[in-house]
Design a protein that fits this description.
Number of strands: 22
Strand order of the largest sheet: 13-12-9-14-17-16-18-15
Oligomer: single chain
Length: 842
């Protein structure tokens, strides 16, 4: 827990979320207007990009988009003109008119005219007929269902325009709070627009499929029953073989030829039919049955026809085949469309004032998400747990109860959380892991960017975890932010988001009037996250929350995967603690820091395994994850915890589930955090174990990362030995205090004294520490046993001469004992093994 600012509790109705950059009064007026112009133009460009994704970018595709879109949002060089939304309802009716009139016109022209060849005539006439029928059906659809779809999109687009106008007004008036709030609403409404377009597109596809089936069936019916025109052919004979003996001199040389279900026929030209009927009667009377079929047929479309005396030629058959292929192809395309027009993924609102992506937006376009992303990188989606539905149900029950209780006990706080929630985009239904990261506004950008990158490029299975399965939520905070550090940090995050367009990074920010507790900061960002999760209309995974610090040095590249697998294997696990290390490659240059930190880690590990210290918390900052269900059932972070908020939460989780099984430790998952707090403590003569006795975040932020004083501490020198002895003594004091006070609070004498209402307890402290062996002397012996094992493992021989000193409290009210040297001190008698190890460290 290295980068946490020290804040005291202060929140209420007077503290309102800033919803992003805290634009200050010194900002030039044209800057806000330019930001508004950029945001609105980007909005219009994304709208245009979605049109390209759906219809394509070619000339024909642009024409299709122009005719089909419900409206178009304009880009402009001036703020007044930018973002104007023009409805285009008349264009769709124009398209329907062109399709209907043009389709039937082509059919009529080719059917009743001469045609344009044996192959093209049947293809184009059937195509025209099919488009004509489709146009009629689309007109009927547009009068009701199509109009409803258009009105839905026009409504949300109009609301989007209204918000864009509010953004313009706020920019011109330099109302910074209204500007940011309007900006957040703009992006949330854009997501709603896309969702509406997705629903409309799904409806259009269903209706298009229905029209395709209907228009194709009607076209086939007309062709089979009425006939398909094959153009004008040279069929001037062949009524029957008898006509060779009795020529029909009235027949022209060329006739229209048609084909229908009963076979091929030719169409009599004007004036031929009456002669044919008279001649057919005479021939029939003269020759009887031998005359064959001389009957003149009646066709509803073509008039008088006659059975063709010979079969169709090759090209006529090709023409019929092409007409059938066209109708089949259109039907297949409607049932199995190409990728153009696939549903769009709703935008991911990035930090600052807009989504940070260009044309290549989308959750999985390019991995590992950054500038060096490989398009061929494999994406792995998280599989649903076998009991996912049960977990989700229990999670939502606990979250509803948790937020209902907050509504009752602290309405001002919950109202603030709701506003933050409404300012952010909806959580993906497939989201499984959420990283919650408070960032102090004075934090160096390179520090938290390194942390973000570690989470962004997480591996999963045989590739990278899909972006839909995780998100990162950042809370930029400060107090007395006279240097506009919040604004600077949010801008840095905005630029960072643009490098990773596929990742969902949500940012909220707030400037407090005074220092705030870390418990409050973590509670706020986590509560916003879980309220967004609860608001999901559909949820496929139970949610895991990863509590993060801004200054991580390294993290297991499969952190998400290992955490998910842990929770899947054990339903009872509600909080998972991974291995946390502090020794980075850089810090290995300073043997004193390595030795002091390792000793603390050894003591901590041994103490937690000891029967007298088993109650000590397993949690410890950025190595902590927990389920949303576990968080809610434990009632979340305690806003009054200035530090050690994760430790308190681990106690609460264990208590909520009545046992230690709810909190697990996995040493196969490693997190390495920053040593800057260690450096600050060592540079200022503070033992590492007492570094949390006061909170000096401002000093740490300005502290050089390269130690100046301790770099001159040489292994084997008296100064080196003396400082490490101070470290060991401070550790003894800390763990002895933890052991004693736990037993003290449970002692019958203390309980009776407190029940009596007498506040004074110093006499009891002295009595139990010095006279009651079960608490006082035994506590010292228990602590000696732990320190002895740790010191032996560390590599030193020692003498422990410890006598508890006066009672004191640290900055957080924790009761500690201080030692009275030289009477109470751990002295090293042999450090050779430790020194040898430090000299060989790499």
């Amino acid at each position: 827990m290295m980068s946490r600012p020290s804040y005291g509790p202060s929140y209420g109705p007077e503290h309102r979320p800033s919803y992003g950059p805290a634009y200050g009064p010194d900002r030039p007026p044209d800057t806000l207007e330019q930001r508004a112009l950029d945001a609105i133009n980007n909005l219009a460009q994304r709208d245009h990009q979605r049109s390209i994704d759906r219809y394509g970018s070619g000339l024909f595709s642009r024409a299709k988009a122009w005719l089909n879109r419900e409206g178009e949002r304009r880009t402009a060089q001036t703020l007044d003109e930018a973002g104007r939304y023009d409805t285009t309802r008349w264009r769709k009716w124009l398209k329907i008119g062109i399709k209907t009139i043009g389709g039937f016109g082509v059919f009529a022209g080719l059917t009743f005219g001469g045609g344009i060849g044996t192959i093209l005539t049947p293809s184009l006439s059937m195509a025209g007929l099919r488009e004509g029928f489709d146009g009629l059906m689309e007109a009927a659809e547009q009068l009701h269902w199509g109009r409803n779809r258009a009105q839905l999109e026009w409504r949300v687009q109009t609301e989007l325009t209204t918000i864009a106008d509010e953004l313009k007004t706020a920019a011109r008036s330099r109302n910074y709070n209204q500007f940011q709030q309007a900006l957040n609403r703009l992006h949330s409404k854009e997501t709603e627009v896309i969702e509406t377009q997705n629903r409309n597109m799904t409806s259009e596809r269903r209706w298009k499929l229905g029209r395709t089936i209907g228009s194709t069936a009607a076209t086939l019916g007309v062709g089979l029953l009425g006939g398909v025109s094959l153009g004008i052919q040279d069929y001037d004979k062949g009524l029957t073989p008898i006509t060779e003996k009795h020529p029909l001199g009235f027949l022209d040389h060329h006739h229209k030829v048609i084909w229908k279900a009963t076979g091929a026929e030719f169409v009599y030209n004007p004036g031929e039919a009456s002669h044919a009927i008279q001649t057919a009667d005479k021939v029939a009377r003269a020759f009887g049955p031998a005359a064959g079929n001389l009957t003149v047929l009646q066709n509803a479309i073509y008039g008088n026809t006659h059975v063709l005396g010979s079969g169709l030629g090759f090209f006529e058959k090709v023409g019929l085949g092409s007409a059938l292929a066209y109708l089949t192809g259109r039907a297949v395309d409607s049932m199995w469309p190409t990728k153009k027009g696939d549903a769009w993924t709703p935008i991911r609102t990035g930090p600052g004032y807009g989504p940070g992506y260009g044309p290549g937006y989308g959750p999985d376009r390019g991995r590992p998400y950054g500038p060096d992303a490989s398009p061929s990188a494999k994406i792995e989606k998280v599989k649903e747990f076998t009991d996912a539905n049960e977990r989700i149900k229990e999670e939502r029950i606990q979250l509803k109860r948790y937020f209902k209780d907050l509504e009752t006990t602290d309405k001002a706080y919950i109202d603030e959380i709701k506003k933050y929630t409404e300012s952010l985009p909806a959580m993906d239904e497939n989201c499984k892991v959420v990283v919650c990261l408070p960032i102090y506004a004075k934090e160096k950008p390179e520090t938290y960017k390194k942390t973000l990158e570690k989470y962004i490029n997480q591996k999963y299975g045989g590739g990278y975890i899909a972006a839909e399965n995780f998100e990162i939520n950042v809370f930029v905070n400060a107090y007395g932010d006279t240097d506009k550090n919040i604004e600077k940090s949010v801008k840095e995050l905005d630029n960072f988001q643009k490098q990773y367009p596929g990742v969902k990074i949500n940012v909220i920010s707030k400037e407090f009037g005074s220092k705030q507790n870390m418990g409050l900061l973590r509670k706020m960002i986590t509560d916003v996250t879980l309220m967004r999760s609860l608001a999901r209309k559909k949820q496929r995974h139970d949610l895991i929350v990863a509590s993060a610090d801004a200054d991580l040095q390294d993290i297991d590249e499969r952190f998400f995967e290992k955490v998910i697998n842990n929770y899947e294997k054990n339903r009872d696990t509600k909080m998972l603690i991974s291995k946390m290390d502090y020794i980075s490659d850089e810090i290995k240059k300073y043997p004193y820091l390595v030795a002091a930190r390792r000793l603390w880690q050894y003591v901590d590990i041994i103490a937690k395994r000891d029967k007298y210290f088993a109650y000590l918390p397993k949690a410890g900052g950025p190595n902590t994850t927990l389920t949303a269900e576990g968080y809610a059932k434990a009632n979340g972070y305690n806003a009054r915890d200035e530090i050690a908020e994760d430790i308190r939460l681990s106690y609460a989780v264990e208590n909520a589930y009545r046992g230690n099984e709810a909190v697990k430790f996995d040493n196969t998952i490693k997190v390495t955090t920053n040593n800057r707090r260690d450096i600050y403590a060592a540079e200022n003569g503070i033992p590492l174990a007492r570094q949390y006795d006061s909170w000096y975040v401002e000093d740490i932020m300005s502290q050089k990362q390269t130690p100046e004083k301790i770099k001159d501490l040489k292994v084997g020198s008296p100064e080196f030995k003396d400082k490490l002895e101070q470290e060991a003594t401070a550790l003894f004091n800390v763990y002895m205090s933890q052991r004693f006070w736990r037993l003290y609070d449970q002692h019958p004498k203390v309980i009776r004294r407190r029940e009596s209402g007498v506040g004074y307890e110093d006499d009891l402290v002295t009595e139990l520490l010095t006279e009651d062996r079960d608490i006082g002397k035994q506590t010292i012996e228990d602590t000696k046993a732990v320190l002895s094992r740790a010191l032996g493992l560390w590599g030193v021989k020692y003498d422990i001469n410890y006598v508890a000193g006066d009672l004191e409290k640290n900055a957080y009210g924790e009761r500690m004992f201080k030692t009275n040297p030289p009477q109470s001190k751990i002295t090293f008698t042999d450090m050779s093994r430790l020194e040898k190890g430090l000299l060989n460290i790499k």
